[in-house]
Write a structure and sequence with these properties.
- The complex is a heterotrimer of chains A (about 325), B (about 110) and C (about 170).
- Chain A is mainly alpha-helical and about 325 residues long.
- Chain A has twelve helices and no strands.
- Helices cover about 70% and strands about 0% of the residues of chain A.
- In chain A, helix 1 crosses helix 2 (about 55-60).
- Chain A is globular.
- Chain B has three helices and no strands.
- By secondary structure, chain C is mostly helical.
- Chain C is built from seven helices and no strands.
- The radius of gyration of chain C is 20 Å and the shape is globular.
- Chain C starts with a helix and ends in a 7-residue tail after the last helix.
- Classes of the chains: A mainly alpha (about 325), B mainly alpha (about 110), C mainly alpha (about 170).
- Chains in contact: A-B, A-C, B-C.
- At the A-B interface, helix 1, helix 3, helix 4, helix 5 and helix 10 of A face helix 1, helix 2 and helix 3 of B.
Amino acid sequence: MLWQLFVTAVKALVLILALLFTFAYITWIMRRGLARFQVRLGPNRVGPAGLLQPIADAVKAIFKEDLTVARADRVLYWLAPLIAFTFALAAFAVIPVGPDGWVVANLDMGVLYVFAVSELAVYGIFLAGWASGSKYPLMGGLRSIAALVGYELALGMAILPVVLMAGSLNLQDIVAWQQTHGYFILWQFPAFLVYFVASLAEMSRTPFDFAEAEQELVAGFHTEYASMKFVSFYIAELLHWITGSALIATLFLGGWAAPFGLPQIPVLWLFLKWAIFIFLVLWIWASWFRTRYDQMIRFAWGVLLPAATVWFLITAYYVAKGGAL
Amino acid sequence: MVAVFAVVGVAIVYATLFLSRLLVGERPKTGAKLEVYESGEVTIGTTEARVDVHYYLYALLFLVFDVEAALLFPWAPAFDKLGWLGVFEVAIFVAILAAGLAYAWLRGVLKWVY
Amino acid sequence: MIVFNLLAGALLLLTGFLSVYLRNAVHAALALAANFVVMGTVYMVLQARFLGWVQIIVYAGAIMVLFVFVIMLLHAAQAEVGFDPLPWMRPAALAVAAVGFLALAWALGAARAPLAAKASAALLKGGTALALGPELWNTWRYPVLLVAALLLVATVAAVALIRPGKEGA
């Protein structure tokens, strides 16, 4: 029992440190990548090709003065970044990066865990907006929840046909099913599209990054935050990007399993598949517009949710007819 | 297992916050430092305002379809034990809820809120 | 196991107490959300794993979002202190609570569990979605459809309350 706990703690620590390292370098990839898309150079002064920039940023953030605005609700103002960070991080606990044992928590209902965590992550945004005692953050927080809940549902409904075909809520089983029957991106392309678009909202990336639509909301829910508390939100936001991409790769692109009968190497294949989606999101970010807030809400309820539901029923009909089981 | 993960994560955040506090220390909080930034202007009034009632509708619709998803999640993996009857049941179930969404849509409540 | 029981019990009591005691409605709502999450883990440990997840997803996720919007809608975050609009409410609440506690104590003393804990745990088969699905959609098919009808009524009522007129359709 104690030994098991120790092993889990070590796994958790390794995974969290890996995620934080990934976060640090995703900021570099993001800034360099966006710059390249816009025919700029991006940060290239600190270290070779600007590779030490994330470290410089971290040092700078730590030395910033940590302010708590006088009007803030002190308890929740402190708690909000913590909640946002924890739930952003927690989703990765069930993603398998290799065969048995290469996952922190191999839950038999991992999909439900993912669904629950992405729902609870909304609290961080709302509490930050409310606790700041400032108008734009409050508005940004409320709008974020109102819009995000629609996308949560689209996300959940897009996983259902995958669960239906794989016959399990466990992510390892879903990966194993894809190894024998082929990737879900081929079987479930409409579900993949809905899931990917809803994920963009979940990660608050273009075209749904209105939480930080500076023309309307200044900086949204984290306007009043500074220093490491602001960094916690920033990490949480990019972690959603990181875990979201890893989840898409796991659910629809075979996860850690090697393609084309190549040798199975844990971590490597998931990393490569994950990189595809990281780049895809960056590409959309660099080249697309931001939707208006009401359009975003109507898109979730009027397009994504009905589309996911209809596709779910089609899949049910197909599987009941005896296909693909 | 997950709890261990969460505890390690929380510890790391607090460690960084504490490190920042340790390195920077207390600085005098003078002038406008502790006022809310909002949009850079001097703020007028407080945040104590009522929000649009439409937000309530979004929350309620969310609750409705959340329960739908929660009931469909045990159906999906146990599907092979239920067969055609299960498909019909779920089709009726989804249709009833879709009617509610369609009604809300047609009455024009899913629109811009402030 | 004992450690978990004690910890969960203490957390449930604490968050439950806080959700009543805290004057700020948003703080109270957060305490209630924490209560729901702890309750979910208790369900999971008691071999009702799917129920535990549903408790977290539906209660801590969706119902609390509803609460939050109601608090914001009614502008009820800060309680008005200093006067008591319903002075007879406190003794009445105390009496009701006392009766409730007595009833609960009597029920705990008198009731017999239909099955021993071990037997019922075996019957639950871990309470996973896989074990629950056929049960829910076969034996309890009509109640499930009734739930859908209930949710439809709730949606229609909310829409009708928000937009009583025909404009903007």
